[in-house]
Design brief:
204 residues, mainly alpha, 8 helices, 72% helix
């Protein structure tokens, strides 16, 4: 379970303009809420961030690159919040903590997460980021299941296969619930946590 999601198609070195870059990404996230991906333009992002189009192109080559970088930043937060809790020795606490951290990020950045899912099939860089993030979570869920006594392996009744199904179930459930309300998202999280506990053999 190594590596972190990293943005593709961006200049790879740290710059003095990190504050400006952060403003561009923050503006992009706000515009996703107000306009949506299709209607949003590079000009909109530049204006909202207080930079010229030329300055924006110094950091990102296109609207797609801006959104890809925003997705990368968001999933990095998701992974950082969940990584330590998922490695907690006691499986029940690990499951509860991981689900709570996931709820928090969906509450804060649900629109970015949904945009990542929507674009993952048509924008290869975003698809790669999202799938890599899913692989990290599948590995974390697998480890929790194994600590709970589920046999390792890829058969349908073994930890790896169960973890993969749980990961994608959680993703789809949170995707829909986050479009309704914080209350629905919390309810969805409780249901997913319950199913995970049953799968781990921790409740019946």
């Amino acid at each position: 379970m190594t590596g972190r999601p990293s943005p593709r198609g961006r200049r790879g070195t740290e710059r003095k303009g990190d504050v400006r870059e952060r403003a561009i990404l923050d503006t992009c996230e706000a515009l996703l809420a107000h306009k949506g991906y299709d209607a949003m333009t590079v000009g909109d992002v530049a204006q909202g961030a207080g930079v010229t189009r030329g300055a924006l192109y110094f950091y990102f080559g296109s609207k797609q690159e801006v959104v890809t970088a925003l997705v990368a930043r968001t999933v990095e937060h998701l992974w950082e919040r969940s990584r330590v809790t998922a490695q907690t020795d006691e499986p029940r606490r690990a499951i509860a903590a991981a689900m709570q951290r996931t709820v928090e990020l969906w509450n804060e950045h649900g629109l970015v997460m949904r945009t990542a899912i929507d674009l993952s099939l048509t924008v290869p860089e975003i698809g790669e980021l999202w799938n890599h993030t899913a692989d990290l979570f599948i590995a974390a869920i697998t480890a929790v299941l194994e600590r709970a006594g589920i046999q390792s392996g890829t058969r349908p009744d073994q930890a790896s296969a169960m973890a993969r199904a749980l990961c994608w179930m959680i993703e789809r459930t949170f995707y829909h619930a986050s479009q309704e309300s914080r209350e629905k998202l919390q309810e969805a999280s409780a249901t997913c946590e319950h199913i995970w506990l049953i799968s781990a053999g921790l409740i019946t």
